[in-house]
Write a structure and sequence with these properties.
mainly beta; 7-stranded mixed beta sheet
């Protein structure tokens, strides 16, 4: 049973930082693509960032490029999303996702596993 458990969300002022964590379990993710999506109230789900666990360059949405960094800790089987220079428009529920493929895609429907989500709220 694959599990993705997010943590690290919270309330932060604009310009601040948060680091989200995604603890993975249930299998080896070395052949998976991993990433983050977000969904704000009243808006569609949006791709944020993704990478292939085995290596290669990560991909970012234009809206977060230069501010967010996706990374992993192989020993802890954990994926991170470091979010800097946060803006009120970054407010959303953030989801960790995994795909049983090396291919990175920006379509949520292409990801096989989703965490329960963690709320990020950025105040102005």
């Amino acid at each position: 049973q694959v599990q993705l458990v997010e943590s690290g969300g919270g309330l932060v002022q604009a310009g601040g930082s948060l680091r989200l964590s995604c603890a993975t379990s249930g299998r080896t993710f070395s052949s998976y693509a991993m990433g983050w999506f977000r969904q704000a109230p009243g808006k569609e789900r949006e791709f944020v960032a993704a990478f292939t666990w085995s290596g290669g360059n990560p991909y970012y949405a234009d809206s977060v490029k230069g501010r967010f960094t996706i990374s992993r800790d192989n020993a802890k089987n954990t994926v991170y999303l470091q979010m800097n220079s946060l803006k009120p428009e970054d407010t959303a529920v953030y989801y960790c996702v995994a795909r049983r493929s090396y291919g990175i895609t920006r379509r949520g429907a292409d990801y096989d596993y989703w965490g329960q989500g963690t709320q990020v709220t950025v105040s102005s």
